[in-house]
Design a protein that fits this description.
Rossmann fold, 394 residues, 2 domains
């Protein structure tokens, strides 16, 4: 793997694509520093080796140059997290950047303005990529969150660095850990898939058939499977146009010898609200006017049992509407089972925006083997796709 250790950064300017797409409040203050912290090891390693760091990132989805999306808002926080001064330049291409780059000293950090102030970034424009490429001797991609996009700074730029390009520590770690599930996984392998919709997970389900022994299904997408099999799901979430697909998945699983587990019971509510009345019923006996918002206690036990027997566990998507305390129990219980299995020696990978939010909210993040930082990028890797940002480094 082309990683930091293959290069001598002494007196070199490292142009690092980071993912500083952090959440800001109305005062433009950073409310979660996870992504900055995630890039810290790479930046520190390069500075310690006697190099300098030029950081480029996007922030949000600005339409043109919109000051509310300026990376200037986060420069002070980046400096605080890294523990070194950070100079901010209010552009990412042009003369002002050229001056700043020419004057950068060993051990210094420069943060460029939001790449997406230029539509050329997302368009993967080669001229824009070439302009960016001028700023560094070595290109380092450490932005896993955007590695599935063929943007100027994430993929197109790499061709201007021939051999002087590598993965940052975060991207390297992501590739290795997702690889542990996809390639050298210890059996039994269990994938836990939850969240709202089948449509966003179908690619993953199809690609992992040959790699897993069990697929545990929970969350909103389970009801489409149940309705497709003739069950009553009341007003639960359902993708009617995916019912055929759900049956095909069940059939294919049988052919491949993969066990698909669907919930046995569910917590139903008479409104989509934490104040709703609730009951526990069999998964296929949900009365009209009620909706399933969490897995039930029998399902928790059955699912936890499978998880405890597993040696490799992949978790993507919550088991219910965990944002509301009344419907968080299924997600929490499965989190406990994953933590216990991990303590027993299993490898557990958690990824996808909402599962990461859940493990953090419930305090499991430090007790699973790896928490992936990139939702879309992780899903695409699990779908078996080669990410443009990864392919570009080679
Ligand atoms: P996804 O982004 O597809 O992983 O979906 C995550 C979202 O699915 C979370 O916001 C959950 O609240 C939601 N969700 C999980 N279970 C259900 C359910 N039974 N009904 C409606 N929404 C759900």
């Amino acid at each position: 793997m082309k990683n930091l250790s293959k290069f001598n950064f002494k007196n070199k300017k490292a142009l690092i694509r980071v993912d500083f797409n952090v959440p800001l409040n109305d005062q433009f203050e950073v409310t979660d520093t996870t992504r900055i912290l995630a890039a810290k090891p790479t930046i520190e390693t390069i500075l310690k080796a006697g190099g300098s760091a030029i950081l480029m990132s996007h922030l949000g989805r600005p339409k043109g140059k919109d000051a509310s999306f300026s990376l200037g808002h986060i420069a002070a926080k980046v400096s605080e997290v890294l523990g070194v001064p950070v100079k901010f330049v209010s552009d990412c291409v042009g003369d002002e950047v050229r001056d700043a780059v020419q004057n950068i000293q060993v051990g210094e950090v420069l943060l460029l303005e939001n790449l997406r102030f230029y539509p050329e970034e997302k368009a993967g424009d080669i001229t824009f990529a070439k302009q960016l490429a001028e700023w560094g001797d070595i290109y380092v991609n450490d932005a896993f969150g955007t590695a599935h996009r063929a943007h100027a700074s994430t993929a197109i730029i790499a061709q201007f660095f021939e051999n002087n390009k590598c993965f940052g520590l975060l991207l390297e770690k992501e590739i290795l850990n997702i690889g542990k599930v996809l390639t050298d996984s210890k059996k039994p392998v269990t994938a836990i898939l939850g969240g709202a919709k089948i449509s966003s997970k179908i690619g993953v389900i199809e690609n992992i058939f040959d790699k897993v022994d069990h697929i545990i299904i929970g969350g909103g997408m389970s009801y489409t499977f149940i309705k497709a099999q003739g069950g009553d799901i009341g007003n639960s979430l359902c993708e009617d146009d995916k019912m055929e697909l759900a049956l095909e998945i069940l059939e294919k699983a049988k052919e491949k010898g993969v066990k698909i587990h669907l919930p046995l019971d569910t917590v139903i509510a008479d409104a989509f609200s934490n104040d709703a009345n609730t009951e526990i019923v069999p998964i296929d006996e949900i009365p009209d006017g009620w909706m399933g918002l969490d897995i039930g206690p029998k399902t928790e036990i059955a699912y936890s049992f499978i998880i405890m027997q597993s040696k490799t566990i992949l978790w993507n998507g919550p088991m219910g509407v965990f944002e509301m305390p009344k419907f968080a129990k299924g997600t929490i219980e499965l989190g406990h089972a994953i933590v216990d299995a991990t303590a027993d020696g299993a490898f557990s990978l958690v990824g996808g925006g909402d599962s990461v939010a859940a493990v953090k909210q419930f305090g499991f993040a430090d007790r699973v083997s790896y928490v992936s930082t990139g939702g879309g990028a992780m899903l695409e890797m699990l779908e078996g796709k080669i990410l443009p940002g990864v392919a570009a480094i080679g």
